[in-house]
Amino acid sequence: MSNNVAYAIVKAGGRQEKVSVGSIVVMNRIEGEAGDKVELEPILLVDGDKVTTFADGISATVTGEIIRAERGPKIDIIKYKNKTGYRKRMGHRQQLTRVKITSIA
Q1: Which domain holds residue 39?
Q2: Is the pTM of this model over 0.70?
Q3: CA 66 to chain centroid
């Protein structure tokens, strides 16, 4: 693996994601239409042998472009109590956004 690959760890919808230029990230829904630019908050930046953390004061920005809004897989929620006839069935699909990272500067 090459040492001069730049990547960053960013906050992305309540999680942390490792991103580099050209990578695609699926995160919790963010406001915006397809084609809009978004800025993500970097926590860690690695550029070759140089590592910069949030505590050191990162001056870089990570920008991306919204590709599309989508929904996650269906999650079935089933509640059941024995001998009482109680059955409850629900479902959930998480709202997601697919983002392509355009630059780390």
Answers
A1: 6-104
A2: yes
A3: 11
